[in-house]
């Protein structure tokens, strides 16, 4: 008895789920729109009629409704005609070949019917067949019928064939589409006739087909098209409209969707305490919103009354704005409360889902559960990421009447600055972190900013994350000094003015270099072709201008290619520890080699060097990303990365020394696109040098290096090319923020 009473309560609480959005009454022969919402068939016809569509409101029902359409009353000529077995193929050819599906021959511009969905307030396309191409939601019809029976809506169902006064119906017949008492059912279904094979059902006022039928081919649906998200029959599978689509049996779709819906529903039912707690919090937020709103209105009223008669009109405007904001928040909070209440056991959406899970007809269940699962999923996400739909604070309603007395006509509420937008093109990490941001257009100005950041690669501590903060930062950029090497920082910014603090910007993650940054300048004193090297005044950029040898090489392509190697070195040598530097290579460079080498070997090799035979010439005679395969016991004195025409060459000879294979980096013997900046990391003690993408810090190549003496950066040019060293962030004239002096946030 208690279980039965609980079922009745559950059915009563889900009445809102069973109302048509057009007529606000119980669904009658509901149709499923392409947007997965439902609408009564009669309401859909009426809406299409109001839109001016005539003759497109076909009946999607697959059952005959008049005696003229039954097989026994057809024309004698049609009755004597023997239908051939290839009838399905004939229908397929008519619908899928020669003309477009559903299009009459000779129709140049078929009319596409748009239906305004009352639920999602959007226009959905019904296709050329209109309502005739939609499925009936048989599962929803069954739920409505069970609901009517549970709450006794409409009274008893009477026999449709009894002489007056009719008796109460005890049986129904889907084939005859009528309800019968016991005597009338026996009378109209005599033994020995075809009607005697009709299966009786419970009496009902709405007769439905036994199963879902394809609206196009009037055959039972057997598959589900995941691409179109639509049930299809055997003939639909071979139509051109489903060519290349992912189609699965309806049993698989039924089981997968039922498992997902059951899992989501189980989660909601298992967190009823959470639902109730969140409802209590929302109700408390509503009370605070009402109190805060009332206080804000009183403050505004007091200020506006002090301004005299000239401010009376403005006062009304401000009060209306607060009232509108308050009502909007209350409406949103009330809607959120109602949404959460529908998640309680036996209520609204949950009750409806429980009833849908009782459906055993697989196509019908898939038909009805698709939209329901989306709603249950959204409800589950709202539980996991709960927060009130509106804030109870009305601080944005404060007024400043000091200097604004002469601007009464423009008097408005103070607004906090909007969330800043971090400029990811100008924000980067090198020797220091340079952070740049801007306010969105039409945002109130900010007096100053607060920068917060933290490392994400440190072990997680219990409780909320600890942010480091710097208050009252002026301007729209800042330098963060002394960052830890090889770390990942997350940063955010928010503005502040008299109205208070605004929202935080979106978090931006920055990787710091894997080693301390090496500061050096370019030194062009080495090599025999210094006249072809143009070094900038700040000694951070160099360009190689091709000369006569390159022109002569064009004539001797078949006999030999004599090119010159232009070399420029860094003015600093490394003798210990780990060092990192970055540079940008012009993508139009013909052939550039970027790397490091022993200072003595570099001076010995390139001071007075002669022309070489080929652009494949390796100036270091040791390891190079484009060198031939060789097995060398000792570490080479040079390590270079070969760049040409916007590509990086990772030669087969590098495979023995690179530690990046598979997922960790590109394979040897290939080319990869040239990143905007290249990073070089030298580990002097280990005798290893790594080449990185300086933007993402993705490894490109790792090589051994002879570190028996001072090692310095080196750049080689064959043909035209240009290299720009990355400028240290510390040289920028920006506001400096020392990381060590930051306070931690609790």
Automatic annotation (TrEMBL):
It is found in: Cell projection, Axon; Cytoplasm, Cytoskeleton. Residues 357-414 form the COS domain. Residues 60-76 have a biased composition (Low complexity). Keywords: Cell projection, Coiled coil, Cytoplasm, Cytoskeleton, Metal-binding, Phosphoprotein, Repeat, Zinc, Zinc-finger. Residues 54-85 are annotated as: Disordered. It comes from the Eukaryota. Residues 416-515 form the Fibronectin type-III domain. SMART domains: BBOX, RING. It holds the Pfam family zf-RING_UBOX. This is Tripartite motif-containing protein 46. It comes from Erinaceus europaeus (Western European hedgehog). The gene is TRIM46.
């Amino acid at each position: 008895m208690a279980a039965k009473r609980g079922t009745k309560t559950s059915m009563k609480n889900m009445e809102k789920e069973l109302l048509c959005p057009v007529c606000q009454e119980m669904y009658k022969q509901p149709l499923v729109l392409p947007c997965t919402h439902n609408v009564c068939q009669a309401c859909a016809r009426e809406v299409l009629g109001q839109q001016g569509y005539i003759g497109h409101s076909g009946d999607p029902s697959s059952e005959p409704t008049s005696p003229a359409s039954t097989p026994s009353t057809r024309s004698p000529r049609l009755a004597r005609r023997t239908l051939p077995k290839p009838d399905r193929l004939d229908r397929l050819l008519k619908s899928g070949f020669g003309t477009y599906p559903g299009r009459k021959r000779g129709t140049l511009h078929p009319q596409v019917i748009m239906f305004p969905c009352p639920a999602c307030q959007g226009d959905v396309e019904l296709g050329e067949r209109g309502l005739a191409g939609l499925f009936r939601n048989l599962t929803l019809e069954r739920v409505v019928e069970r609901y009517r029976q549970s709450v006794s809506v409409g009274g008893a169902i009477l026999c449709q064939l009894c002489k007056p006064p009719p008796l109460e119906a005890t049986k129904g017949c889907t084939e005859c589409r009528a309800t019968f008492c016991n005597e009338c059912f026996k009378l109209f279904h005599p033994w020995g006739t075809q009607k005697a094979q009709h299966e009786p059902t419970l009496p009902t006022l709405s007769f439905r087909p036994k199963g879902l039928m394809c609206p196009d081919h009037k055959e039972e649906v057997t598959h589900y098209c995941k691409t179109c998200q639509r049930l299809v029959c055997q003939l639909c599978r071979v139509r051109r409209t489903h060519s290349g689509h992912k189609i699965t049996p309806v049993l698989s779709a039924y089981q997968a969707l039922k498992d997902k819906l059951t899992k989501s529903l189980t989660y909601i039912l298992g967190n009823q305490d959470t639902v109730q707690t969140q409802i209590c919090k929302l109700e408390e937020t509503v009370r605070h919103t009402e109190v805060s709103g009332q206080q804000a209105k009183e403050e505004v009223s007091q200020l506006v009354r002090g301004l005299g008669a000239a401010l009376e009109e403005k006062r009304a405007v401000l009060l209306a704005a607060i009232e509108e904001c308050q009502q909007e928040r209350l409406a949103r909070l009330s809607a959120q409360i109602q949404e959460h209440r529908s998640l309680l056991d036996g209520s609204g959406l949950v009750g409806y889902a429980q009833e849908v899970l009782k459906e055993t007809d697989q196509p019908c269940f898939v038909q009805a559960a698709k939209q329901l699962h989306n709603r249950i999923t959204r409800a589950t996400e709202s539980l996991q990421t709960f927060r009130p739909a509106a804030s109870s604070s009305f601080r944005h309603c404060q007024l400043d009447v000091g200097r604004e007395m002469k601007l009464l006509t423009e008097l408005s509420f103070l607004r906090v600055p909007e969330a800043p937008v971090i400029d990811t093109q100008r924000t980067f990490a090198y020797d220091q972190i340079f952070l740049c941001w801007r306010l969105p257009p039409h945002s109130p100005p900010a007096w100053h900013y607060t920068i917060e950041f933290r490392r994400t690669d440190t072990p997680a501590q219990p409780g909320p994350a600890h942010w480091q903060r710097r208050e009252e930062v002026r301007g729209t950029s800042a330098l963060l000094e002394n960052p830890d090497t090889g770390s990942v920082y997350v940063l955010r910014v928010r503005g502040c003015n008299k109205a208070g603090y605004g929202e935080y910007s979106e978090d931006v993650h920055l990787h710091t270099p894997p080693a301390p940054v090496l500061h050096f300048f370019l030194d062009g004193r080495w090599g025999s072709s210094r006249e072809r090297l143009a070094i900038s005044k700040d000694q951070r950029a160099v360009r190689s201008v091709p000369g006569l040898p390159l022109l002569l090489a064009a004539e001797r392509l078949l006999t030999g290619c004599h090119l010159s190697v232009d070399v420029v070195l860094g003015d600093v040598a490394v003798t210990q520890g780990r060092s990192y530097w970055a540079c940008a290579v012009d993508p139009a460079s013909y052939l550039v080699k970027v790397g490091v080498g022993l200072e003595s070997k570099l001076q010995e090799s390139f001071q007075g060097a002669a022309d070489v035979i080929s652009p494949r010439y390796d100036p270091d005679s040791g390891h190079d990303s484009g060198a031939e395969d060789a097995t060398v016991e000792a570490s080479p004195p040079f390590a270079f990365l070969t760049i040409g025409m916007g590509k990086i060459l990772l030669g087969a000879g590098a495979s023995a020394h690179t530690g990046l294979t598979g997922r960790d980096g590109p394979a040897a013997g290939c080319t990869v696109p040239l990143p905007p900046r290249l990073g070089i990391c030298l580990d002097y003690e280990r005798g290893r040098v790594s080449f990185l993408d300086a933007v993402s810090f993705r490894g490109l190549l790792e090589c051994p290096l002879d570190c028996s003496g001072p090692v310095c950066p080196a750049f080689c040019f064959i043909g035209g090319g240009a290299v720009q060293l990355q400028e240290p962030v510390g040289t920028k004239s920006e506001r400096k923020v020392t990381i060590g002096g930051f306070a931690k946030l609790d």
